[in-house]
Amino acid sequence: MNHAILGPGGIGGLLAAALARAGHPVTLIVRPGTAAGFPRRIQLQSDLLGEVEAEVEVVERLAEPVDVLWVAVKAGQLETALDQAPAELVGAVVPLLNGVDHLAPLRRTYGAERVVVGTIRVEAEKLEPGRYRQKGPFIALDLAGRPDIAEEVAATGIQARAVEDGEQALWAKLIMLAPFALTSTAAQLTLGEIAEQPEWRDRMVGAMREVKAVAATRGIELEEPTGMLNVAARDMRTSMQKDAAAGRPLELEHISGPILRGGREGGVPTPRTEELVALIRARYRA
Fold it and tell me: How far is CA 266 from CA 52, 152, 165, 169, 213, in A?
């Protein structure tokens, strides 16, 4: 398949490098005004995939048809970025954004039948344009409804699989992502440091339980992923934590909004999530 990746950040670069090394044509869609200085040969240093160098096409606006468009921009940039990938040139659309609210604008733009719900769990970052780093023993990608795409990605070494329920997959990611992202950002601690400090560990576990309760009001049953505190990389950090430390805009509303909103709508108290959001707003004026 031909792949285009909208967003040259950590996840976009990781996917571009893995797919291009496997021999697939890859077009990386970068921000307007940046293509001239963006390298066509990208590099990935990955704990799972090893050292990867691969050639990609770099454009600011998609001009040729592609089979799959991967959407890997920050949630706050989504509406503007979609103009760079015209609907008539796109086959399937796979978003890998945080939260759950991004599906509506994608379905409006490309049609619900083309949008494949996807989630990815990984620590990946852009070191500089065209250079990427992936840490940890997993790159877990779930896709709902397109096993052929999942199989193609799995052949690159990424732990990709097809799942039946897209909404279940989104909330299964949210119960891990949101509590960890909120806690790590509020405290500026790694996962291992959170596990060792009872006050922060309790906040994170409490937020997990709130996500579980909110999801239950939507008919979604989740397990509390408290085991991640013991088995995940102890130096693991979240993208929002890194954004906060670097003074970049935060995805606070996109990550916490579905929980707080769902709690209000379903009559579920969410005091731990509210506390963490308040701490982040006070510290970073987010």
Answer: 46, 39, 21, 20, 9
